Amino acid sequence: MDIYSLLDKRFICSFCGREHYIPIKRIITKKGAISLLSSFLLDLVKGRRVLILSDNITYDVAGKRCEENLKGEYEVTSVILKPESGKRVHAEEKYLPQIFKNAKNQDVLIAVGTGSITDMGKYVSNELKIPLISFPTAPSMNGFTSGVAALLMRGLKITIPVKPALGILIDTRIISSAPLELIKSGFADSLAKSFANTDWKISSMISGDFFCPLPLKITTQAEEKYINKAEELLQRNEKVISYLMEGLSAGGFSIILAGKSSPASGGEHLISHFFDIEANKRKREPFSHHGLQVGLGIIISSTIYERLKGLSSREVERRLRNKKIDYDEEIKSFGKDAPLIKKEFSKKVSILKELPKKLPSLWNEIKEKAFPLVHSSQKIRDSLKKTGCPLCFKEIGVDKSLAYKAIMTSRYIRGRLTILDIASELGILREIAEEFS
Ligand SMILES: [Zn+2]
Ligand SMILES: [Zn+2]
Question: Do 325 and 301 share a structural domain?
């Protein structure tokens, strides 16, 4: 299937029977695509007033050239965000007023950058109802094509539904020249999809909520083209990097198809979000890039899945009967954020209460239909190792006690059931937290 054939077309899904619609109008992936920016805009956007959003790094990488390419034909305003603290700009609410101020009365916002710029650009353009064009500078995450924005607000990492970009212009020469850490980050982030989809499938088997297999199908199809090409990725092979970008784009589409981030963000992402919240609390730079933190989360998820495979339904029943978890006590470890965390966690308390009744009888079906969808923990480690991604928490500066806390309590930061919840309720999360810390 050509995943781009799904763009801007309403269709009835042959898997779930629902109508899906990806409102992105056009994606061009090409060497030297930056020179097409003006005609790309002309086709997609009415009006001449353009705001280019970048930061001190991405302005030099591409923002400046975007500006030059549009001058004469468009009225261009540039907002170049500078880090208010630390070395880099991150998606935080403190940068938003400056973007809002300049984006008002514009006809289009072009986000030139990676995760932070794209997420803030999507958020502002959605609020102001102006179209967004995404111009990625690195294949670092799947947000260029997604319908959500992840931002740190009031000290918490939150994911907000937003309108996706109207168009995405990808210059393969630019994204292949990105820092290797960002390429690795995109690779690791893309590996989350089998885990995220399986978390979603299990949750839907328990709750009866909607699930669609199409997201996993399109991301798997894209992944086959790059998952075993670590060497080429590290050599910045443009073809393979464009395949990785296709995988990331498919990841973004999958969020739009599902109408929520479930197919791209499961328990493994909560571990990464936990570290972002913690870094913010400590007023320091994030421990690592999003995808590299997610990679470590995937190692935990894959270990959990492996461990769960060995449990019988009788064992599941016994463990749920004997479970002893004091949610309030664990939530207390979030300190002043505890009330907010508690509120978020309360969204899944009812499904957790149903587990003793539902999980034992569903267990064999879950083992048969859901567990085979994830990559083995060996495959994950091999893939991450070959691409030079971190394999242990120490490598990103997370000490033993923080690693333990991340594994044990990340489940509380989002009100959606993931494999971390199942592992915790079945009493295997603590074993794993002890092993990895
Ligand atoms: Zn569907
Ligand atoms: Zn991600």
Answer: yes
How far does the centroid of ligand 1 lie from the alpha carbon of residue 215, in Å? 8
| Distance between Cα 94 and ligand 1 center (Å) | 37
CA of 19 to the centre of ligand 1 (A): 7
| Residue 364 maps to a domain | yes
Same domain, 330 and 420: yes
CA of 366 to the centre of ligand 2 (A): 25
Give the residue-averaged pLDDT of 234-255. 97
Angle, alpha carbons 236-147-43 (nearest 5°) = 75
CA nearest neighbour of 112 among 59, 165, 171: 59
Tell me what percent of the residues of the chain surpass a pLDDT of 90: 96
User: Where among 114, 144, 177 does a domain terminate?
Assistant: 177
User: Does a structural domain hold residue 238?
Assistant: yes
Residues near 348 by beta carbon (within 8 Å), at least 6 away in sequence: 415, 416, 417, 421
Give the Å distance between the CA of 264 and the centre of ligand 2. Answer: 7
3-state secondary structure of 169: strand
Which stretch of 77-91, 345-359, 388-402 has the lowest confidence by average pLDDT?
77-91
H or E stretch covering 157: strand 156-161
Asked if the structure places residue 182 within a domain, the reply is: no
Q: Provide the pLDDT confidence category of residue 431 given band limits of 50, 70 and 90.
A: very high
How remote is the CA of residue 337 from the centroid of ligand 2, in Å? 23
Q: Which ligand has the shortest distance to the CA of 268?
A: 2
Q: Burial, 259: exposed, middle or buried (Cβ in 10 Å; 0-12, 13-18, 19+)? A: middle
* Confidence tier at 334 by pLDDT (50, 70, 90): very high
Distance 199 CA to ligand 2 centre (A): 15
**What is the number of domains present in the chain?**
2
| C-alpha 406 – ligand 1 centre gap (Å) | 33
In terms of domains, do 237 and 374 share one?
yes
Tell me, in angstroms, the distance from the centre of ligand 2 to residue 330's CA: 25
Domain extent for 122: 3-177
- What pLDDT score was predicted for residue 154? 84
The answer to whether residues 89 and 197 belong to one domain is no
Cα of 220 vs centre of ligand 2, distance in Å, is 16
- 384 within some domain: yes
